[in-house]
Amino acid sequence: MNPLDLTEVYNFLAMNYVENEASTIRLAYSMDFLQWDSYTSKRLRDRRLTPVLIKEITRRINLSNVWQAVYTAGVVLPIPLAECRYFHRSLNPKKLIQVGFSPILPQKTLAQTIKMFNLPTRTLTTGFRPMEKTDVPQVTKLLQEYLTKFHLAIEFSEEDVAHWMVPRVGVVNAYVVENPDTQQVTDVCSFYHLPSTIIGDDKYKKLNAAYSFYNVAKSVSLTQLMQDALIMAKKEHLDVFNALDVMDNIEMLQSLKFGPGSGVLQYYLYNWRCPRMSSDRVGIVLC
Fold first, then answer.
1. Are strands 152-153 and 282-283 parallel, antiparallel or unpaired?
2. The domain containing residue 184 runs over which residues?
3. Does any domain span residue 63?
4. Could you give the CA distance from residue 40 to residue 55 in angstroms, rounded to a whole number?
5. DSSP assignment of 26-39
6. How many domains does one find in the chain?
7. CA 37, CA 163: separation in Å to the nearest integer?
8. How does pLDDT run across 198-216, given as a tens digit for each residue?
9. What is the pLDDT of residue 3?
10. Residue 165 pLDDT > 60, yes or no?
């Protein structure tokens, strides 16, 4: 995408993309994110233009001899393959409460709520460090082995992992656990950044959110690995950490104080029949 097109797409999405029901928070993709991840105007969204765009995308991928696809939507269309719920973990509870993203917890004061969501200042896992490009072969192998247990998953190549998981400032963070004796990468965790514009608030203009991406825990528990991810997300000045109940995520959600949200994501397959599955059988996260 050339710089002019990128700017136009960025401005278009900034004014028209998904809002919450109260129209106070709107997803806000950064230009760097659009280049990494590469929508219809709100005014036109109810005029059935989205199917036209999807039809054109389908035509173009068919020209490349691609005939199946996986996609997600927040609405129920015929026929969902799986229904996955978003869970949210406060990193900056005071801000989240002030902008109306989340309430004060029942029977707790603001100070008690803030204290409840406190995190350690340092990660706990020995060998935990940012992923580097040289880790791509080992991370690819970890992902390939891990994702075989799920009914719907991507067969990642090293090229895929290099693109999607090697850290990019303000776009995606990934961390590995390296055994200090063998220098083998045993675990990986990752999250991507997706801020939202806060509409009509004099103090705050952005809600900075992390979204859980792909995580493989072998030498430590998933709970410990993801606590380290939460600590790093807080250090990145992110306000909330979001995760779907896909893969093995359900193992760590309650113990790490994630709460169920109102958002539900429907998974669909194009041009492929598949029985309906539970969310923990889904091994794909789409940005």
1. parallel
2. 85-262
3. no
4. 14
5. EE---HHHHHHH--
6. 1
7. 10
8. 888 889 999 999 999 999 9
9. 72
10. yes
With respect to residue 167, please indicate whether it lies within any of the assigned structural domains.
Answer: yes
260 neighbors 228 (Cβ within 8 angstroms): no
CATH code at position 170: 3.40.630.170
Q: Which among 199, 206, 178, 163 is positioned nearest to 20, based on CA atoms? A: 199
Segment 79-107, tens digit of pLDDT: 999 999 999 999 999 999 999 999 888 88
